[in-house]
Write a structure and sequence with these properties.
There is one protein chain. The protein is of the alpha/beta class. About 55% of the residues lie in helices and about 10% in strands. The strands form 2 sheets. The protein has a 6-stranded mixed β-sheet with strand order 1-4-3-2-5-6. Helix 4 packs antiparallel against helix 6 and helix 6 packs across helix 8. The longest helix has about 45 residues. It is globular. The two termini are about 50 Å apart.
């Protein structure tokens, strides 16, 4: 533990600023006493006991800062119950240091927080975080599905065979693969069979996610507005709104475009300015959703198709044209959500058909989601009952203290211990 004096002028109402440099196994802590001009540094473990002991030392008038890293949402939720404020630093905008280590990183967080110069990011609420987690999981499943399809195509190419279709899961493709099994070697047949089984498994997982996405998307009233845009369905609109979060945190459409990473890099010095490629800051999934919508929007007559054709005539390339249209669409989305207006180039018949399909899917999805919730609850309760029964019997393999501590925060089934022990 180190304690040093600082030459600081107290200018904050908070008596203590705390910087946390969080890692998987340990946390380096800097407590900056801005009124006294001193600071204290030490290291703690991320284990539950030691972290709980650290939380007990916090005061209600403290302010805490930590970097946006893996698991930062968990620590934010735990800290918010003990301190006045928790700030999550934007790591890409933190000043660099010649001596980068845990001690300096935690000190810089505490110091920048105390003087009000810490670059922070917006923390979404719990429901929005769950929406993002679900969408990222679905995106990973789709990526795994694409990799498997490419491996199957590569396996066929190794034997001089090609499939000209686009959907390898279609009935025609399945008949083609069944005929090929007699021509492949035993090892290749085994590999192909395993890959097809994995493909079926991923397809089943994606089908189970669809009703959950339909139900969670119904929480966002902005989804109905975005669906008036050609090329945007429930999934695309849900992705856009879940990544953006609250639209009122962006004062202008330009700030939203900057958040999405669709603005060009700017190099300015001595009166000279040059624009480069787009920054690609923010969420990659948001840019993907906008680009997917633009692909369909540019096929219909209107300003987006005109912009795309004009840029292609200037030999800017399809990629630059699609990026420009995506930024234009994002500007329109900001105006639509802020003003509560529908898309100006909306197609009434297309919008009506999308609304009908959404209502039908939502009607079928809600009973499925409720059934899934009840099934998951029953599984958790049965596991908790088993753990409690083992603990009461003092089994030969005792339950770890950490597991009991974590399960103790959950609601146990309302049954007496003796009844579970004898059952």
């Amino acid at each position: 533990m180190k304690t040093r004096l600082l030459n600081l002028t107290p200018s904050q109402t908070f008596s203590r600023s705390i910087g946390l440099d969080v890692h998987r196994d340990r946390i380096y802590v800097t407590e900056l006493f801005i009124l006294e001009g001193t600071y204290k540094q030490y290291e703690i473990s991320t284990q539950e006991k030691e972290f709980e002991a650290f939380l007990a030392t916090l005061r209600s008038d403290d302010q805490v800062a930590l970097e946006a890293t893996r698991g930062s949402n968990y620590y934010v939720r735990r800290l918010l119950t003990r301190v006045a404020s928790v700030s999550v630093a934007n790591t890409s905008k933190l000043p660099s240091s010649h001596a980068k280590n845990d001690r300096n990183d935690s000190y810089h967080l505490a110091f920048l927080l105390s003087i009000g110069m810490l670059p922070t990011i917006w923390m979404a609420d719990k429901e929005t975080q769950e929406d993002r987690e679900l969408l990222h999981y679905r995106a990973n499943l789709v990526q795994d599905q694409t990799r498997l399809k490419n491996r199957i195509r590569a396996l066929l190419a190794e034997h001089g065979m090609n499939w000209d279709g686009s959907d390898i899961k279609s009935a025609c493709a399945q008949r083609f693969l069944m005929r090929l099994k007699s021509l492949l070697s035993s090892a290749s047949r085994e590999v192909l069979a395993n890959q097809l089984e994995q493909l079926d498994f991923l397809d089943t997982r994606l089908q189970r996610l669809e009703p959950i996405i339909q139900v969670r998307a119904a929480r966002w009233p902005e989804v109905a507005l975005l669906m008036t845009i050609r090329g945007i369905n429930v999934l695309t609109a849900f992705t856009i709104m879940a990544i953006i979060g609250r639209m009122d945190r962006f004062p202008s459409a330009d700030s939203l475009a900057n958040y999405s990473g669709l603005v060009p890099r700017q190099y300015s010095s001595a009166g000279k300015s040059r624009l480069g490629k787009i920054t690609k800051a923010g969420s990659k999934m948001l840019r993907w959703a906008l680009t997917e919508a633009v692909q369909s929007l540019c096929k219909a007559d209107g300003p987006y198709r005109n912009l795309c054709k004009r840029l292609e005539r200037k030999k800017k390339g399809k990629g630059i044209a699609a990026t420009a249209c995506a930024r234009k669409l994002l500007t329109a989305i900001w105006c639509m959500v802020t003003r509560g207006e529908t898309f100006r180039q909306a197609e009434p018949k297309l919008t009506e058909s999308k609304v009908q399909r959404r209502e039908q899917r939502l009607k079928a999805a809600r009973p499925f989601v409720e059934e899934q919730k009840q099934r998951h609850h029953q599984i958790i309760m049965s596991q908790l009952a088993l753990v409690q029964a083992l603990a009461s019997r003092r089994a030969l393999m005792p339950v770890p203290d950490q597991l009991l501590a974590s399960l103790g925060r959950l609601s146990l089934p309302e049954r007496p211990v003796a009844a579970m022990a004898t059952g």
